[in-house]
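Why should sequence recovery work at all? Because a backbone constrains its sequence more than one might expect. Tight turns favour small or flexible residues, buried strands favour hydrophobic ones, and helices have their own preferences. The token representation captures these environments compactly. In the example below, the structure is given first.
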């Protein structure tokens, strides 16, 4: 049984796979080791752990010691790579790319033989384009929804509002509306830009993952929701690396 871990900046997602079958999964927080409790019953069946993380080095080491308390199985951290099975990273310095982006892109590349856009709507939002030939054409990094809400709250003294999941993009008539509609309006504009780029680059599909995936679809993103794209790519890569 293999434990897959996607440790993002705010949340951690885990999944237990056994020969391609999902045995169990969960969500936790890096700072709160409670998530490990859900794994207790499986601990002695874990034969290996694969991790994709974009957390700081300090938190990565905390995670490593949490995992060492759970299991003595080997823990493998996977990072962005220059290339793999036909997918070519467009970064000149691949080590600088977040592992989550590479793993999501790899899963997308393996499940589609056409050009694809990969959108990860997490703490930060990332957009990456991959041509039909597997060339990473580049991407974008933007603040995520909670990050934008937080910055308005923290850095603008007179902006008091109640955040909502509103998808209304009409002009607001109160502070709360102006903020919530503004965030939806901004996201809808991003969705439009993604559609333009996809058309221009001749990509055939958009895959979206991350905590705000449904919100993007709600705002018009023409995409297939792939909830665990990072874990899917991580699973494929770890499997390939373990093969003799
Ligand atoms: N139960 C939830 N808890 C926290 N965030 C949630 C929840 N449900 C949806 N979200 C949304 O998900 C976003 C965070 O997404 P996600 O959990 O994919 O991020 P992450 O993997 O921690 O971050 P990243 O990978 O970008 O560093 C937030 O902006 C928030 O709006
Ligand atoms: C952009 C995030 C935060 C998205 O999770 C992550 O992929 C990351 O920390 N990336 C490092 C910078 C880069 O990808 O170029
Ligand atoms: K993520």
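From this structural description, the recovered sequence reads:
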């Amino acid at each position: 049984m293999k434990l897959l871990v996607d440790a993002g900046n705010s949340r951690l997602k885990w999944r237990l796979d056994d020969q391609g079958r999902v045995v169990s999964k969960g969500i936790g927080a890096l700072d709160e080791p409670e998530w490990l409790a859900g794994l207790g019953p499986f601990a002695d069946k874990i034969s290996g752990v694969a991790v994709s993380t974009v957390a700081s080095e300090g938190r990565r080491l905390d995670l490593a010691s949490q995992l060492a308390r759970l299991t003595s199985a080997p823990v493998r951290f996977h990072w962005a790579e220059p290339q793999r099975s036909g997918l070519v990273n467009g970064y000149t310095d691949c080590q600088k790319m977040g592992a989550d982006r590479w793993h999501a892109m790899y899963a997308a590349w393996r499940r589609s033989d056409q050009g694809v856009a990969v959108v990860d709507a997490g703490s930060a939002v990332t957009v990456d384009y991959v041509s039909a030939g597997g060339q990473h054409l580049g991407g974008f990094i933007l603040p995520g929804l909670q990050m934008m809400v937080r910055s308005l709250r923290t850095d603008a003294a007179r902006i008091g509002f109640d955040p909502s999941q509103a998808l209304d993009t009409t002009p607001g008539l109160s502070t709360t509306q102006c903020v919530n509609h503004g965030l939806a309006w901004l996201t809808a504009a991003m969705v439009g830009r993604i559609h333009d780029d996809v058309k221009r680059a001749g990509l055939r599909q958009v895959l979206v993952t991350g905590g705000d995936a449904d919100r993007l679809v709600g705002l018009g993103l023409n995409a297939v929701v792939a909830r665990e794209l990072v874990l899917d790519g991580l699973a494929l890569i770890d499997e390939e690396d373990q093969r003799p």
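A few observations help interpret the result. The first strand starts at residue 2 and ends at 7.
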